[in-house]
């Protein structure tokens, strides 16, 4: 790949107050974002660090719009929406930026064309921005062949991700400069206006209703069908939007838990989730909430047309009986709704798990212990089941229901759960002085033990 040369392109420095035509909604929106990325240090660092790009005190960032590259006469003129240039000493990292707003979506043909430009001009990456969602910046909502991806590194940001990152910085007062804080807040005001074209993931695909009905009736799906892959892809987008919603609600970054193998290869994640959908008739997602007792697990069960949300807790080691361990858990669930929560008990060895409603346990824990004499519960699942009925198959209502159910569970249950932690060891009364454990004291103790063995 040739080195990037500034003589090979022309572009306008990104403006905070763009002068692009009113019809260029994408260009105007992107210009404001790029200008803030360049001039609000913490914002630029936050976005670029997710791409593996280091941004330090001496880093220089330049951003451009209306980018045109030198092309041969017989080649089609292509104009990427923007360009980001990051200089760290002698090292330079450059990325093209292509943005879509509103309902406009990225296409494989367009991405391949920009990846060609990147390769021809020594550009490291292509960043796309749209209202489509991806679990990680290194994953992409548009499927491309391996050959195209080798031309340059491909990243994706959703507009809601950009908005969320800015909101977290503001909520946590992480922007040290007051003027930059004002700039970032104005950017948030702009992005949240209807005219900016930024929106959440608000509906499942057209095939959603038929798939829900088919699986609920006991039918099966084909692993190779476009319909199945579309459902999984849409679920991945909604999972990401859900993590961003939680992030904004909690003022901390909530990430989707993705196995290392799947993080490295997005196609493996799709294959694995397609397999689970076919075999289990469910789709799953797991969210890591910082400092929470355990990951937040979400399952959409097509057989029962329900949404299942849960967290796991290991039983406390300092409580020796099942009764004491249950009471320890119940104290943490005082604000949970009786009629929506189930507690699943896991027992040692091969014993099957048991399950009781929170309401029943609050009234009497005896049934949970009966038949388990001599055994002590080892862990718990705290579960909320939302029975959606026909609404699960409705493209928009499903989104409304799941985006209400998950925060509701966290509000009533998740935020109150605490991991059991062993108490710090205490000094023994007879060992409170250093002289109590010096060599003389240890020798006397050993001699005493030897005499006791011989008597």
Provide an overview of this structure.
Residues 425-455 are annotated as: Disordered. Residues 426-455 have a biased composition (Basic and acidic residues). This is Stress response protein. The mean pLDDT is 91. The protein contains 15 helices and 13 strands. The strands form two sheets. It has a seven-stranded antiparallel beta sheet. Strands 1-2-3-4-5-6 form a six-stranded mixed beta sheet, with helices on both faces. It folds into three domains: 6-196, no CATH class; 208-416, no CATH class; 425-455. It is globular. By secondary structure, the chain is an alpha+beta fold. Helices cover 39% and strands 19% of the residues. The longest helix is centred in the middle third of the chain and has 25 residues, at 226-250. Helix 1 (25-39) crosses helix 2 and helix 1 runs antiparallel to helix 6 (178-191). It has helices spanning 25-39, 41-49, 108-120, 146-149, 159-171, 178-191, 208-216, 226-250, 260-264, 266-280, 322-332, 358-363, 366-369, 395-412, 439-454, and strands at 9-13, 60-69, 82-88, 91-99, 125-130, 153-158, 255-256, 282-288, 296-301, 306-314, 341-346, 354-357, 379-387. 34% of the residues are buried.
């Amino acid at each position: 790949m040739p080195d990037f040369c500034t003589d090979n392109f022309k572009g306008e420095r990104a403006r905070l107050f763009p002068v692009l035509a009113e019809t260029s909604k994408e260009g105007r929106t992107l210009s404001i974002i790029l200008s803030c990325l360049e001039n609000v240090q913490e914002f630029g660092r936050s976005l670029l660090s997710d791409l593996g790009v280091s941004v330090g005190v001496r880093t220089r960032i330049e951003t451009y719009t209306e980018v045109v590259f030198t092309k041969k006469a017989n080649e089609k003129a292509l104009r990427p929406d923007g360009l980001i240039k990051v200089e760290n000493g002698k090292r330079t990292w450059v990325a093209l930026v292509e943005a879509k707003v509103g309902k406009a979506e990225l296409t494989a043909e367009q991405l391949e064309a920009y990846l060609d430009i990147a390769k021809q001009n020594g550009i490291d990456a292509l960043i796309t921005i749209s209202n489509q969602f991806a679990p990680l910046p290194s994953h992409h909502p548009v499927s491309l062949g391996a050959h195209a991806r080798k031309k340059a590194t491909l990243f994706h940001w959703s507009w809601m991700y950009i908005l969320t990152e800015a909101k977290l910085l503001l909520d946590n007062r992480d922007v040290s400069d007051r003027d930059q804080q004002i700039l970032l807040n104005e950017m948030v005001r702009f992005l949240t206006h209807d005219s900016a074209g930024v929106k959440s993931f608000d509906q499942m695909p057209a095939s959603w209703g038929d798939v829900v009905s088919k699986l609920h009736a006991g039918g099966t799906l084909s692993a190779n069908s476009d319909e199945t892959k579309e459902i999984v892809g849409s679920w991945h987008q909604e999972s990401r939007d859900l993590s961003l919603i939680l992030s904004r609600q909690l003022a901390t970054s909530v990430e989707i838990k993705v196995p290392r193998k799947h993080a490295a290869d997005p196609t493996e994640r799709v294959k694995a989730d397609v397999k689970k959908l076919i075999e289990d008739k469910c789709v799953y997602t797991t969210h890591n909430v910082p400092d929470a007792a355990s990951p937040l697990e979400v399952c959409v069960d097509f057989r029962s047309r329900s949404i299942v949300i849960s967290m796991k807790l290991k039983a406390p080691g300092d409580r020796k009986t099942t009764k004491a361990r249950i009471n320890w858990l119940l104290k943490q669930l005082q604000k949970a709704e009786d009629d929506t929560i189930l507690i699943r008990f896991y027992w040692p060895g091969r014993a099957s798990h048991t399950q009781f409603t929170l309401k029943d346990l609050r009234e009497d824990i005896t049934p949970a212990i009966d038949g388990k004499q001599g055994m002590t519960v080892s862990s718990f699942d705290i579960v909320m089941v939302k029975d959606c009925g026909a609404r699960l198959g409705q493209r928009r209502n499903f989104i409304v229901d799941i985006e209400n159910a998950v925060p509701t569970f966290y509000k009533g249950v998740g935020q109150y759960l605490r991991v059991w932690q062993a108490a710090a060891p205490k000094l023994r009364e007879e060992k409170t002085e250093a002289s109590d454990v010096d060599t003389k004291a240890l020798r006397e103790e050993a001699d005493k033990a030897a005499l006791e063995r011989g008597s």
